Amino acid sequence: MSTKKSIAIVVVFWWIFACFFFFSYTLHIQQRLESTQKELIGLSKIKSLNLLNKALQRYRGLYPLDPEQAADGGHIHQRLIELRQTVSSVESVLNDAKTASEIDAVFSSKDQEANLFDQITMLIEKNNQQLRIIADKYELLYEPDRENFILLELVLYTIPDMIESAAKSKAIATRAHTVYERPNDLSLIDNNLYVFSQAFHNLKLLIDQFENYSEFIQSVAVIEQEYQDYYQLLTGVSEAKPLGPGLFLFSEGTRLVDASYALAELSRQKLKANFQQRLVTYSQLLRVSYAALLIGLTLSIYVYLRFYRRSKIDRQLAASRKINEDRVNDLRKALHNLNTLQEICNHSLRFIAQHLSAVSGVLFIHNEKIEQLNLSATFGVNPKSVKHKLKIGEGPIGQCVLDARIYESTINQESNPSSVNIGITNANVKKILTFPLVNLGSTVGVIQLLLLEGKPIEHETVSQFADVMASYIDKEKKYDESKKYFASINKNVITSSTDAKGVITQVSQAFADISGYTKEELIGQKHSIIRHPDMPAELFKDLWSTITKGNTWNHEVKNRTKDGGFYWVDVTISPDLDFYGNIIGYTAIRHDITEKKKNEEIAITDGLTQIYNRRHFDTCFELKIREMRRDMKPFLFAMLDIDFFKQYNDNYGHQQGDNVLISIANTLKHCLRRPRDMVFRLGGEEFGFICDADSLEDAIKICEAVRETVESLKISHQYNAAAAYVTISSGVIFITPDTRFSPEHYYKAADEMLYQAKTSGRNNVKLRTL
Ligand SMILES: Nc1nc2c(ncn2[C@@H]2O[C@H](COP(=O)(O)OP(=O)(O)OP(=O)(O)O)[C@@H](O)[C@H]2O)c(=O)[nH]1
């Protein structure tokens, strides 16, 4: 899954979560609001019940006073009227017709004198019970706020208990002191006062829990004072009988009850204020919440619509991109299977022309070396009608190489014909599209198309196709060049590769041509197949010891051709290494130096005898002396002269004399055929040779052998005073490394020895050590 998609999913989930949260929050606020509204209704019903109770309690306290005797009999009557008014006013709030009828039943009862106290008490208790039922019904009992809960505790339990106990004791005391006293009135009063004091104590504990109860302090103090007064009054009068003025007792009790009612009212007011405050807060929160929900919803719809629209566009784009990708892949596959640059150019042009519904088109390839564009393919147009070569900057195609961007021009009557390289032949052509084929930053070629439709062209798609074409054209172009390059190497460079053991794995045609073997005959063989016997074994030892150490070896080598001939090459052999530096084979590159070598041979070879001449002797003699000093190995230098050769020439003829010279040279070559032996014609009928010798005896043996071999040729020479055949005299020096003479000195010494040989009868060897 793409990162973009993952982010989108996370955002959507968060968005759903946020909406859900807001929705739940709004619902919660709504519920709280409704619940508070209910609580307010409940509170007003509680107030009504309190009013009702207050009226009932007032009446219950007054009733025992004899209306005839009491000074305020009218007052009692007045209270009854008030009670009835209260009942009718709360009735509508309570929605309870039963209350009025029950109260009516109590007051219209004939035996009310005896039972009225109890019946009113029963009504009050019932109302107090009703208080809690209403509190439950209107959810006041589930009030979450702590302060409100304490206030409710006051309003529902504590203060009603206080009021009822105070009111009861007031009523009992008043009755006892004015009308009649029942046996346990005193204990009842005591009991009620005790209940009051307990409830009052609770009240104070509860109020103490308020953080800010200053409003209540005053009210509680009044209750406390009233309670003290009333308590003292009751304690004081309980002893005395008949009791003092009942109305006074009644008034005192009423003050305590009223003070309690005042606190109840204060608590209710506080509750009401709290609820109303909450109502305002919730209403505001609800408005904000609804507004947030509305904004969220609007935003969601907006985002959804945008996203939907975008994703629709994206889907369309993705679909068209997919089609293009498929087409690009098809093109790539098709080009991949083509083998020549021409095929690739033809296919590329046809493909893009068909894709864009072109009527005709051309493809030019850029030749960077000569800064020129060459026509390489045409579509729908005769190649003969198109200029085959364009300069860079010539026309839109030439310009395209410089700018490397897509040109799109619409055709109309005023169109300049020079804007086209192809030449418009179709009147319906609406547009010309010229675009470069760019690979790795360089323009490989340019395509120009004539289109029948004038609608806009997606440059991105054209570029995609162009990139693929450019890469294949460039690759094939370079491959073509390298093919030509390798063909040239194959033809002209004498090269071969072997494995690590020296077995030939590759040879160039030039190698095969010069050696006279076919490639097949060479591959699988070792290079010894072309080894010439003239090449010393030491040379190849040196070769192998160099290249197996990873070094390059270079030397001039004479090779043998298949038909027994020879050729000279300057060969360089380098090891082929793998990635880790291990030798995996060797590659040799050779230059044919046969001609050079032949020229060199001519320069150092005596034309008549085909052995080395005097010039070469001078070089070799000096080198040999140096080598001797380096290797500390002695050698011999012999100077030979044919005896009485002048007579031979004079009598047998010059031509015959030449033949003798050739025979002697061949004999020397035959006798001295070790690789390091060298035979020279030092001039006229004088020869020389250099060869290794371990000792003086060894040197004598060699020279004697040569002298004897020449004599054994039995070339008749009747003018030779030394023998009947052609003979030679030899002056030899055995040169040891201890001496430090110049080459001229040694040469002169040998010449002196030769002179001695001549003067001491000829056909002999004179030798000395130097
Ligand atoms: N046929 C022929 N003769 C040559 C050639 N070069 C030198 N000669 C001859 O060799 C002869 C050398 O003669 P001399 O120097 O007198 O020596 P010699 O006759 O051999 O006498 P000694 O050396 O004293 O035995 C001359 O007649 C030269 O003409 C050559 O290339 N071909």
Provide the β-strand percentage band: 15-25%
> Termini, distance in Å?
97 Å
Output mean pLDDT: 87
How many structurally independent domains? 4
Named once each, the bound ligands are: guanosine-5'-triphosphate
Radius of gyration: 69 Å
Uncertain stretches: 67-72
Shape: elongated
Q: How many DSSP helices?
A: 20
Number of E-type strands: 16
Amount of helix: 55-70%
Spatial order of strands in the largest sheet: 3-2-1-6-5-4
Q: Main sheet, how many strands, which sense, barrel? A: 6 strands, antiparallel
Structural class: alpha+beta
Task: Summarize, please.
This protein has 770 residues and is an alpha+beta fold. It has 20 helices and 16 strands.
Question: Could you list some keywords that capture this structure?
Answer:
Beta-Lactamase; binds guanosine-5'-triphosphate; five-stranded antiparallel β-sheet; about 775 residues; transmembrane helix; alpha+beta; single chain; GAF-like_dom_sf; 16 strands
